[in-house]
Amino acid sequence: MGQTSELMDKIDGAAIKKNQLIEESFAKYAARSLLAALYLSLGAALAVGLGLKFEGSLGKMLYAFAFGVGLALIIFLNAELGTSNMMYMTVASYRKKLPVLRAAKILMVCVIFNLIGAVIVAYCLSYTGAFHQLPADNFLAHLVQGKFDKGILQTVIEGIFANIIVNLAVLMSMKVKGDAGRFITILCVIFIFTFLGFEHVIANFIYFPLAFFSTSGAIAGMTFGAVATNIVWTFIGNFIGG
């Protein structure tokens, strides 16, 4: 019980600090949300780059393992990620540390600026050597196309599991002593959801525009409706998981 209480106190403290930050400087909070998109994009780019470089099972394993670098950067550099804030804001509301509408505002501001940052970074990455003018048949294209083949129920359930795993990584990072141990723990926990292909809304903010810009829009099944449907149901699943 003592350890649980200590962990909840840390979550409460983090939520209160987020509220103080957005009250004192909306621009600083928005910047931290943009930076989270940058950090996660760098991890996703590394992961996808490995998937493009190595074929088959090896490529998939390297992709899954490398993706966690992005979350590690977010945690270590104190950026604002929408999916972890789903946990923080829900706990803060439940424990009456923040009013529900205030918590919802913080979450939505974070998610919106995560989206803006992800689109900007994806566009810039599409001009780098690793992603410029990719053929339509590539690892990233297959990754994105697979998302459109999932039904609503599958998307929601995978979204739930994805954010449970992300927040387990966040909570584990609070418990583990030492930066090296925290880093390794984050990579190992995040490996679960990336290897299993679960749905993470902020990651999808990156994958969809990166695939679109890198292939000049030549992705089978990629329409505004398909992308919006995935984003909405993934968000719902992630929120439940958070």
Overview of the molecule:
- The protein is an all-alpha fold and 242 residues long.
- The protein is 80% helix and 0% strand.
- It is built from 11 helices and no strands.
- Helix 1 (2-24) crosses helix 2, helix 2 packs antiparallel against helix 3 and helix 2 runs antiparallel to helix 4 (68-76).
- The longest helix is centred in the N-terminal third of the chain and has 28 residues, at 26-53.
- The chain is globular.
Provide key terms for this protein.
242 residues, mainly alpha, 80% helix, globular
By DSSP, the count of extended strands is 0
Largest sheet: none
Secondary structural class: mainly alpha
Measured distance between first and last alpha carbons: 21 Å
Helix content: over 70%
Order of helix and strand elements from N to C terminus: HHHHHHHHHHH
Q: Number of DSSP helices?
A: 11
**What form results from the Cα inertia axes?**
globular
Global Rg: 17 Å
Strand content: under 5%
The low-pLDDT segments are: none
Question: What is the fold's blueprint, element by element?
Answer:
Layout: H1 2-24, H2 26-53, H3 56-66, H4 68-76, H5 82-94, H6 100-125, H7 139-148, H8 152-175, H9 179-196, H10 201-214, H11 224-241
Helix pairs in contact: 1-2, 1-5, 2-3, 2-4, 2-6, 2-10, 3-9, 4-9, 5-6, 6-10, 7-10, 8-9, 8-11, 10-11
Short description:
The protein has 242 residues and is mainly alpha-helical.
